[in-house]
Amino acid sequence: MEGNTVIDPHRTPSALLRLPRDARGYPVPWFVKWYGSRPDFRVVGEGKFSRAVAGGRCWICGERVGRYLCFVVGPMCVINRITSEPPSHRECAEYAVRVCPFLAIPKMHRQAHNLPDEIIHPAGDHNPRNPGVVAIYIARKFSVFPAGLGHPGRLIQMGEPTEVTWWREGRPATRSEVNTAMNRGLTALYEQCENRQDQQDLGDAFARALRLMPAEEVT
Question: What is the CA radius of gyration of the chain?
Fold first, then answer.
């Protein structure tokens, strides 16, 4: 799926139609771990990160991605350009932000109870709060680096974006909604700064991210 292709919002991408379904009839993303006949949408299957990165697989449907790499991320990730999840097709990413309950419903919270004991939590600092707004960050390149701080996982540095689209409640987000979410993300990132240089670097990154916000609403 290439850069600015128009997506039919009522159509399930053909690649997702080939995925197995859960008991409700929803396609189960490729990255999800199965426990027998039951998928756990909160858990990433063993080796899926490495297979997605090495094989150029879409994180959602598992098929090969093209030149445009679409990362489904929150406002904090747009600021620091770091994420823990490999990219997807644009078609798959847009389906996810419209259908996934956590991405499409701002009041939805991640359910952390009864998680399997053996899972390794994703690398990086993950805020359990729903950001209310989600972005599809589209780039041509990315790089992978060790998470560090004793975590065995890896993180992704997203390249320069060719486009960023913003979503809330399964629809394009307004500039004011994105502005609110971005400032909340900035507050969370400032809490991680260890010195003045970190704060300066974060300020520069935030100024860069502001240029990716939606256009002003027409009244």
Answer: 17
The three-state secondary structure class of 102 is helix
Q: Residue 77's CB: how many other CB atoms inside 10 A?
A: 23
pTM over 0.90: no
62 part of a folded domain: no
169 in a structural domain: yes
Rounded Cα distance between 123 and 24, Å, is 30
Place of tokens 């008991």: 23
Taking only the tens place, the pLDDT of each residue in 79-129 is 999 999 999 999 999 999 998 876 766 655 445 555 555 555 555 555 556
For residue 154, the one-letter residue type is: R
Dihedral of alpha carbons 161, 1, 103, 39, sign: negative
Q: State pLDDT tens for residues 176-199.
A: 999 999 998 898 899 989 999 999
Note down the domain range covering 143. Answer: 67-111+122-210
Sheet of 134-139: strands edge to edge? 69-73, 134-139, 161-168, 171-172
Residue 133 lies in a domain: yes
Residues ≥6 apart with Cβ < 8 Å to 81:
137, 157, 158, 205
Matching residue, tokens 């389906």: 95
Where are any strands of DSSP class E within the chain? 32-35, 38-44, 69-73, 82-83, 134-139, 142-148, 151-158, 161-168, 171-172
